[in-house]
Amino acid sequence: MSSALILSNVSRSFGETHAVDNVSISIEPGQFIGVIGRSGAGKSTLLRLLNRLVDPTAGSISFGDTNITALKGKALRHWRRDCAMIFQQFNLVDRLDVLTNVLIGRLAEHGVLSSMTMQFSDEERAMAIRALDRLDLVPQALQRAGTLSGGQQQRVAIAKALVQRPKIMLADEPIASLDPANATLVMDGLKRINREDGITVLVNLHTLDTARAYSDRIIAMRQGRVYFDGTPAQLTDDVVRDIYGLDGLQEFNAAVTSTSVHASVPA
């Protein structure tokens, strides 16, 4: 049975800047959580704290009986396998084909030699093909990753995360640079994985309509703190105005008009 991911009074400072400030939240297994807030609110730092790409200045993070904050070496690598990260800029190797890029997600299971020589088993190759099939990318399996569209590359990145067999998927603004059609395909893929596999998903989003369409729960950050934590229905217009402020709301409205994403996954 999966465990809750718990942040207890977690902070992260960069010099005088408090990127995340005394955050305490509990993330239950299987939730799809949208994280919103204006630029600089601490959304990206929060996700990076969860899989230890950055370390907290104070507080602790736990997953079941495991103190994530204390992990080092092999144990930390295994946590990053279990808590997969999907980035805005895809993090693929352009010169390698799509299938090999997905298989790179299996390297945490390999020793040094097989990692260096990129040796993968038939079982792993079959796993990668199945992941690509779930994201409608099998026809592109032998195509160089750098020749794909941005939306296709982001779906390859999701497949790469999927073959890690993670318990949690983190996605840091995965649709920020995509057109609405590709953004919908990416969000639909994440939602299907969440529902079919029971994988917990946290997604940083820059548009409110997307967060409302896909999320079971929305966490809104402001100046490094959790300002709102509830269901999409509880996120009223008044709360949104408080989260973004007047100038931030104008910035947000401009983003909404340029990116309109609506869930096509059945409710």
From TrEMBL:
<keyword id="KW-0813">Transport</keyword>
<dbReference type="InterPro" id="IPR012693">
    <property type="entry name" value="ABC_transpr_PhnC"/>
</dbReference>
<keyword id="KW-1278">Translocase</keyword>
<feature type="domain" description="ABC transporter">
    <location>
        <begin position="5"/>
        <end position="248"/>
    </location>
</feature>
<dbReference type="GO" id="GO:0015416">
    <property type="term" value="F:ABC-type phosphonate transporter activity"/>
</dbReference>
<dbReference type="Pfam" id="PF00005">
    <property type="entry name" value="ABC_tran"/>
</dbReference>
<dbReference type="GO" id="GO:0005524">
    <property type="term" value="F:ATP binding"/>
</dbReference>
<dbReference type="InterPro" id="IPR017871">
    <property type="entry name" value="ABC_transporter-like_CS"/>
</dbReference>
<keyword id="KW-0067">ATP-binding</keyword>
<keyword id="KW-0472">Membrane</keyword>
<dbReference type="InterPro" id="IPR027417">
    <property type="entry name" value="P-loop_NTPase"/>
</dbReference>
<protein>
    <submittedName>
        <fullName>Phosphonate/organophosphate ester transporter subunit</fullName>
    </submittedName>
</protein>
<dbReference type="InterPro" id="IPR050086">
    <property type="entry name" value="MetN_ABC_transporter-like"/>
</dbReference>
<dbReference type="GO" id="GO:0016887">
    <property type="term" value="F:ATP hydrolysis activity"/>
</dbReference>
<dbReference type="GO" id="GO:0016020">
    <property type="term" value="C:membrane"/>
</dbReference>
<dbReference type="InterPro" id="IPR003439">
    <property type="entry name" value="ABC_transporter-like_ATP-bd"/>
</dbReference>
<keyword id="KW-1003">Cell membrane</keyword>
<dbReference type="InterPro" id="IPR003593">
    <property type="entry name" value="AAA+_ATPase"/>
</dbReference>
<keyword id="KW-0547">Nucleotide-binding</keyword>
<keyword id="KW-0997">Cell inner membrane</keyword>
